[in-house]
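User: What would this chain look like folded?
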Amino acid sequence: MDTATAVSAINLMTVIIAAVSAFCADGLWYGPLFGRAWMDAWNFTEEQLATRNMPMVFGVSLILSFIAALNLAIFIGAEADLAFGVFAGFAAGLGWVAAFLGILYLFEQRSIKLFMINGGYCVVALTLMGAILGAM
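Assistant: Here's the prediction, encoded as structure tokens.
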């Protein structure tokens, strides 16, 4: 399939739903599930985090989630089913994103705990996106 056909076959609403799912997973992952552990791994305080421009952080995060979902949709193709979507999302999360985070974390001497939190989020978010893209 050529690039123009692949791009024109994308279901934009499904991409938006997949992006929002990762955005919501982000809120759970870095909130009630692993928020405290993530803060501890970075030595962040509540006061430091309160100084962030949250509308900008949330807005850019949603845009980046959309870009990731669009990229995954192009990668898995319009003919994908749920099983392939889950597999492709998991493979992208673990085999590409988490693997490269691991390389960066080794050179930057970051903790394994932080790698597990951040890499785990990438695997979960991309697997969820892949499931949505494949199912719809």
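The chain has a mean pLDDT of 94. If you want, I can go into more detail on any region.
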